[in-house]
Design goal:
Blueprint (H helix, E strand, L loop, with lengths): L1 E13 H5 L4 H4 L10 E12 L4 E4 L9 H6 L7 H8 L9 E3 L5 H4 L3 E4 L2 E4 L5 E5 H9 L10 H9 L3 E4 L3 E4 L2 E6 L6 E8 L2 E5 L22 H18 L2 E3 L8 E7 L2 E8 L6
Parallel strand pairs: 3-4, 4-7, 7-8, 12-13
Antiparallel strand pairs: 1-2, 2-3, 5-6, 9-10, 10-11, 11-12, 13-14, 14-15
Amino acid sequence: MKIIPVSAGDFHCDGGALFGVIPKKLWSKVYPADENNFTRLALRCLLVDTGEKKILIETGIGNHYPEKYLTNNGVELKNQLLNSLHEKGYSENDITDVIFTHLHWDHCTGAVKNDNGKLDFEFPNARYWCSKKQWEHSKVSNVRERAAFNSRVLNFISDSGKLKLVENEGELFKNIEVKFFDGHTPGQMIPFIFFENKTLVYTADLIPTAANIPLLWIASYDLFPVTVMDEKEKFLNEAVQKEYILFFEHDYYTECASLSKTERGYTEKERFNLNELL
């Protein structure tokens, strides 16, 4: 098995949104913001090459949005996903499966390309995996979250017949299991990857950055904050006990971290890049 980080570029969000009720005086010490209070975030995907399968986790943003929208969201490095794949020695035709942790715009719309209004798959040979609960939620959602779902792209994927809805937690592929977390958005599907006696967890928006590890440091984007804290506490406790490695999708500065628990709560024990383990 090969596990390879793949960049889909980066973007930004308001620091207050990233850390919720935590005062800027505290969070700015561990995660910087610019003069407009924007924090830089990565769009860090993950390629799992099992030999038989080439499984891509997340796909970033794609080319569906007008320039003003991209500028407002600090999106840089267009077409970075394919460029990064090619740099790693893979083509879009190699990808056999794509896992979406959830269906917000910054996680899945890069799976589809927009050619002057005509949609087509960026990875034509792939199947696309999402939890059934998240798919159904994306259709009803609410006024606060609705803008995060690109219905045209999602309907294109569904209508193609390539969308596979996951109903139960457990093994999705050999050495890859998924678990559901509902606080950020119902049915967020978090991959657990087992390799060389280690467990790598792709944390997506359960823990978007290493700075979000402390239990109360949750984002304003989370739909159900109390649920997030309950799910997060159980996960962090398990992660410490089982020595999970956390792989951050959105942390611009930190790729991976291990955890510890102190009298003051959960914190990172060590920060490092994935290639230091492989």
